Amino acid sequence: MAQSYKSLKEDFVSNLSGGSIWEINLVTAVAPSAVLLWSALQARRDFFIRYDYAALTTDFLLNVGAILAAVTIYSSTPLVLNIFLVLPALCLYLLPSTSRSRQKRPSHTNGHLEKDKAKTLLDPLPERPYITHYRGSMMVVTCVAILAVDFKVFPRRYAKVETWGTSLMDMGVGSFVFSAGLISARPILKARMNDSVSTVSASLKAAARHSLPLLALGLIRLYSVKGLDYAEHVSEYGVHWNFFFTLAALPLSGALLHLLPQRLSTIHLFALLMSGVYEAFLHFTPLKAYILTATRDGFLGQNREGIFSLSGYVSIFLMGQVIGLDILPRQKIASSITMAGTRVQLQTLTRLLFWAAWFSLLLFLATSYKVLGLHVSRRLANLPYVLWVSAFNCAQLALFCAVERMMFSGSGINTDKAAEARRSEYATSSVLGAYNKNGLAIFLLANLLTGAVNMTTDTLRTSSARAMATLFAYMGTLTLVATILQQRKMSIKL
User: Fold this and answer.
1) Which site from 246, 347, 447, 486 is most exposed, i.e. has the minimal number of CB atoms within 10 Å?
2) CA–CA separation, 471 vs 492, rounded Å?
């Protein structure tokens, strides 16, 4: 008897083993490479000052089209695509600049007065273009992958692995959570700056306001998948569980940890301890065998992957929060405001490189056969997975920070909030800024469009040319919606 189309689609994304971390790094490096070229056009030619259709199209092709190409038509040669993006950027950087938007540096005299004025007027939690680019690019990769994975033009090694191994989509899931943790540091920092102390109950109420919409989205997805008999990969999260439920649990988990001192070192050590204890339970108890092989009886058995992996995702969320606590606040200026631009960026870049090296070292020790000999598993969200996601995202942040420092270090001298806002807008891609501003709403729309395409298109038999056209139209639609929301200054909070 011939297999049903539903079972064929389920088999298409099942029992996969992933690819190498080196290849994943090369593919994802396309995002900072594209931002490098965008930044060169802006910093050296003021290309995006007049944001007309040509500028919007170029922005889209660089920061969305390049990522789409990296995971499809350039999937076998991502290094070539990186070279195509970096070489023209370097040429623009070396050629004489025609930009008229470089702000004049303040005079070196009266530096301490400038320093005091900056402390008074500047936002203590400023918008950072490199963080916007990081979060926006991560959202673009995620949106591309959730539909592209259903077409053969998307390599199977990039799809989520069954149990052990690494893949692009496995990293995408973890990066989404890490990014959420990064931004969750802002309320903590604001409360600290205002010398306000919130109770656990107040934190839980605030977390519930964030979690309830996500819980509702999870229920809608659950009933949609079951009602429409949509293809699903049960071993990913379980029979009923989905990623929205995992996202909904994160703010509540963070609120429950409010009893911990909100210090960087404490949160970091607690996240490592939580992940380490979970790993110990996986190895020294029957828990790992239960998650991977038990029959699906009862609610816990049916959704064991989603429920038990929460420990790992909470650890990733906390790791992101640690990085946010470290890099989001305005850094102290050592001498005068004239030194702030490059010095602060260099300090931030140094710290990000330190965190990337630290997590990479821990990952090496965890996976080395001479030490712990563990394997990465997104399905279990185990210790190596937590460390891999943390190391990768710190390295990505460092790359985007390096691009900003290289291209915009001379224009970052600001003496008031308005000047800083102008500088930030000048150094930020409008397309990536739009994806960052309404990320969760765009992610929801991406899921709806993905479902619509899969219900109306035989993706397994679609030619590569038609698949690329579909993906291009899909990403164009998402970008158009995100850009319209951005231009109308609308922020949809979910």
Assistant:
1) 347
2) 24
d(CA 378, CA 98): 48
Per-residue pLDDT reduced to its tens digit, 187-229: 888 877 776 666 667 777 888 888 888 999 999 989 988 887 7
Find how far residue 453's CA is from the centre of its chain: 24
Distance, CA of 92 to CA of 61 (rounded, Å): 18
The pLDDT value recorded for residue 192 is: 78
Residue bearing tokens 């992101």: 320
Judge residue 457's burial from the number of C-beta atoms within 10 Å of its C-beta, 0-12 exposed, 13-18 middle, 19 or more buried. middle
Q: Which amino acid is at 191?
A: A
CA distance 168 to 120: 44
Q: Which of 362, 363, 260, 379 is nearest to 311 (CA)?
A: 379
Q: How far is CA 376 from CA 40, 199, 368, 431, 472, in A?
A: 37, 37, 11, 33, 32
Q: Is 2 helix (H, G, I), strand (E, B) or coil?
A: coil
Give the helix/strand (H/E) hosting 471. Answer: helix 464-487
User: Which residue in the block uniquely carries the two structure tokens 């109770």?
Assistant: 199
Q: Is the pLDDT of residue 27 over 80?
A: yes
> Is 0.90 topped by the overall pTM?
yes
Contacts of 219 (CB under 8 A, 6+ apart): none
Beta bridge partners of 19: 166
Cα torsion angle, 242, 450, 67, 20, sign: positive
What token pair was written down for 403? 């691009």
Contact between 449 and 477 under an 8 Å Cβ cutoff? The reply is yes
